[in-house]
Amino acid sequence: MGACGKSSASESHASAASDKKVVIYTNADEEPVNVIKKVLDTNGYKNKYVLQSFGTSELGGKLLAEGKHIEADLVTMSTFYLDSAQKKSQLFKPLKLAATPLTKVPDFEAPMTTQEGVIFYNTKALKEANLPVPKSLAELADSKYKGQLSISDIKHSSTAWLLFQALIEQYGENKTKTILKGIYQNAGDHIEESGSGPLKKVRVGEVALGFGLRHQAVKDKQDGLPIDYVEPTEGTYSLTESLAVVDKGKKTNPAAEKMLNLIVTKGRKELIKDYPSALYQNESTQGLEIAKDQKVFAKKLTPELLKQHAELAE
């Protein structure tokens, strides 16, 4: 009798969890969010989830502060934050992935996209300002670009960290401080909270050039906007964003992992067009605009390292 009672109690827990809408927290840009919605809506999950968007630092703070009390069932986030949250509170459950990642990843993570940074410019605005196309990130510190540059704020956006990583790796921290001083002076009031903010300003010609997300600049150029981009001589640095399911024990919503696998198996076909880096076996980047000099920072990325690098901007 007791055993039967336990069984029915756990079954009611499971059915209660599965009846609830899956809460998805994401720091992703507009493109991946649209892919997630499309994949879920067309594969039986329309109106069965609630998706909430956050800035990277805001969501990272929630993961680290709230732990297993977080409302989210499924999270898409910068991988280094997921790693840190797992280390702190064993926040995520082991996954049974429906696809095989190309590189060894922890059992609680499913890679979703690779984010890359690039210099981009408004071809008309740059010509009107009689400015040359910069070849390197270090050149962005040249005073001739004063008032014509936009970047994102490293305190709010991990996109800015790609700029910092490239400078630190190539020039060391001391020289990077000097370069950043020039970059920040040139950007002035055009330091944006979101990673896509600089391109929005460059699109309308409010400033001539910026540093931001490579895939967005590539798409603008392909769409016929007066936007072009240049791979900086320091290399194109990247970081990954991944999916994870929050481990809530018996209250874990079983639909969350099913949704995660749908995004991995069906969503990646769309995502790779915007973020042209293969992450799983049998993925092809043929015919896509791939950065020629892809790089990753030599040290393991952590929130602590991000904070340390952000201090260079003070």
Question: How is this structure best described in words?
Answer:
- The chain has 314 residues and is of the alpha/beta class.
- The protein is built from ten helices and ten strands.
- Strands 1, 2, 3, 4, 5, 6, 7, 8, 9 and 10 form a ten-stranded mixed sheet that branches.
- Strand 9 (236-245), helix 9 (254-274) and strand 10 form a beta-alpha-beta unit.
- Helix 2 (30-45) packs across helix 9 (254-274).
- The longest helix has 29 residues, at 159-187.
- The protein is globular and about 60 Å long.
- The N and C termini lie far apart (66 Å).
- Residues 1-15 have low confidence and may be disordered.
* H/E topology pattern: HEHEHEHEHEHEHEHEEHEH
| Nearest-integer average pLDDT | 92
* Number of β-strand runs: 10
Strand content: 15-25%
Q: Provide the structure class.
A: alpha/beta
Q: Total number of helical segments?
A: 10
What is the CA-atom radius of gyration, in angstroms? 21 Å
Largest sheet composition = 10 strands, mixed
In short:
This protein is 43% helix and 18% strand. The chain is an alpha/beta fold.
Secondary structure: elements and pairs:
Blueprint: H1 2-19, E1 22-26, H2 30-45, E2 49-53, H3 56-66, E3 74-78, H4 79-89, E4 110-122, H5 123-128, E5 149-152, H6 159-187, E6 191-192, H7 197-203, E7 209-213, H8 214-222, E8 227-230, E9 236-245, H9 254-274, E10 294-295, H10 303-310
Parallel strand pairs: 1-2, 1-3, 5-6, 5-7, 9-10
Antiparallel strand pairs: 3-9, 4-7, 4-8, 4-9
